[in-house]
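Please review this one.

:::
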Amino acid sequence: MRPFRPYPLVLAAILAASSGAAEGLGDAEKGAALFEQCKGCHMVGDGARDRIGPHLNGIFGRRAGTQGGFAYSASMTRAGMDGLVWTAETLDAYIENPRALVSKTRMSYRGMKDAQDRADLLAYLRRHSDSPADIPEAEPTARPTDHDLDPAILALEGDAEYGEYLATECLTCHRADGSATGIPSITHWPAEDFVVAMHAYKSKLRPHPVMQMMAGRLSAEEIAALAAYFGNID
């Protein structure tokens, strides 16, 4: 049985009151330079339109998968239906590791690992969404904070036999044969992705009330065991 490799999951950015300036997230000017990494797929600002990815005007406060006229992946559409809304917190997590929120996202970007870079990029994107100074209910700026999962948790070696015992409840919805009629398949899911996703549900970063409840019942050892079982299920 192979051990898990540490896989970073930063659940960064708690919402906080601020003056309403986008720069409260970070340095928007630096963020504009960082956006060069995104331009191959996304546009933002005057005249922005959908490209490989949707345009990012008004991204703050938008429900995932709902930009009119853009053909989203089934996984992104499902995430929006589950209640995923793009906020400072969820955007930070998605930019750091897209699979932390949307396991089968079509976005090929591997993630921006530096927390300050993400804060700067969000400050730039924030300039192109509603201003909290003008619309009090709009998504506020935020301060980054440390919510890293303990690397020791992510390095746990899962017991596949124990995972098979625990999987009985999972298999009332998910299919062991990998079919996915209305419910996504978790069969042969890479163990790292499984652990990342389950901890995101456990922390309530991923929105889905049933999965949040299920993950909330599980210990880190149990999540590792389930990952080992489903990753190698026959």
User: Anything to note?
Assistant: The first strand starts at residue 14 and ends at 15. The chain has nine helices and two strands.
